[in-house]
Amino acid sequence: MPEAPYPNPPPALPRPPSTARERTQLEAFLVLRRNPLELWGPAAYQRDVLYGRFLGREQIMLNDPDAIRHVLVANNENYGRNIGTKRVLQPVLGSGLFLAEGAAWRHQRRTVAPALAPRTMPILARHVVLATEEAETELDRVAGGRPVELLPHLQRLALTVAGRSMFSLEMAEFGAGMRALLMRYARRYAQPGFLDLLLPASVRSPLDIGRAAFRAEWLRFVDGLIDARERQAERAPAERPPRDLFDLLAAARDPETGAGFSRAQLRDEVATLIIAGHETTAATLFWACYAAAKLPEHQERIAEEAAAADLSPGNAAAALKGLRYTRAHVDETLRLYPPAFLIVREALGPDTIAGRRIAPGTVVSVSPWVLHRHRRRWRNPDGFDPARFLPGAPPPDRYAYMPFGAGPRVCVGAQFALTEATLVLARLLRAFRIELFGSGTVVPRGFVTTQPDRPVRFLLTRRAH
Prior knowledge:
Its cofactor is heme. Heme binds at residue 411. This protein has helices at 25-34, 65-74, 83-93, 102-112, 121-142, 150-167, 175-189, 194-198, 206-234, 245-251, 263-294, 296-307, 316-319, 324-336, 368-371, 414-431; strands at 49-54, 57-62, 79-81, 148-149, 343-347, 351-353, 356-358, 363-366, 432-436, 444-447, 449-452, 457-462. By secondary structure, it is an alpha+beta fold. It is globular and about 60 Å long. The strands form 4 sheets. The chain has a 5-stranded mixed β-sheet with strand order 1-2-8-5-3. A 3-stranded antiparallel β-sheet has the order 4-12-9. The protein has a single domain, classed as CATH 1.10.630.10. It has 16 helices and 12 strands. The mean pLDDT is 88.
């Protein structure tokens, strides 16, 4: 249960409108296409388990930590990705770690995990700070008292970090092409269509035809990225330590079988890591900056903390432990605006959840968006309060706060994402005072990740040091 109410509740930030009226199947589908974050009415934020039917299939939504643990941990082998998720993500992620299942997933997880272990964080932190220094210079150039749409800059920054840390490649050559491809896919194919949800996996939907054509184009692009990296490696000394995640992945062997990745597998892992690694972090950074602009007292506290830290490339990893408030601000951002707003699984066999028998084919969902705002799990759940995550605060239940998922399939790059978001936010707010420009409400929209529903402009003012 949440603690007693705040004597002075922290302010709430924007959220989508909701309705208490039960929607028809058609209305629910249209809302799903427009903005999935509007799907859930007040009951979803108050009940532990919700039951329903959608397109003729049983649906269960879980907000109870014990039930969530059962599905994602204790009996996770009984719950696979649902067909809608596979149709939408397979063209860009292939059979990489995010979508793989069974023995293939276990092999990939064992092979990829060491490349993102804590011992690699100093290398990655250096890449983060160097890229952020360049982003600061660019923002200095384009701002100059003029309003700046910050999200594209954050996306380019996160993509630069991903390119350098994963491939030691400058993404100027590839970044624009990758963003154009991904944006085209997002506009045309990333929202599930009616037949995507209704047809069995063995039957292609109309959108699947376009997705297949995109897949071929996308594979050519990723192959070009890998070819460029391999040409670069040919010019490097034969004996040298690994420089990046690509080196680690290419050399990685499953500790149980000794098997490495084939070229096709490596391609899918590269696509998974670079897309997941930059899109989700950019979204988190946008909302962290938005919250800082809306709440200047939080912004100033981060700026003071960052000013006292040595955030140079060589010391960034060591400085992280002193960025306690900045990290708490990131954690609270991930609570209110989790990039992965919905986790969907399908029961492969019969089971019992929260005392109720379920049949194979039942769709089981956990929404971090709802769970993180649940009235029974959090006090003042819509209020932005980093103090929830400061040292000494009671930690939230492990299965009530899960911005990176939970269980065996928890995001393998979670530590990297937190490191990057904390360092970038500290550097940006140390360099600039950030204010919102213009009026109008910004509504979060579930569009692959949690995005603003419109372009948002900020005024950036250089801080005196």
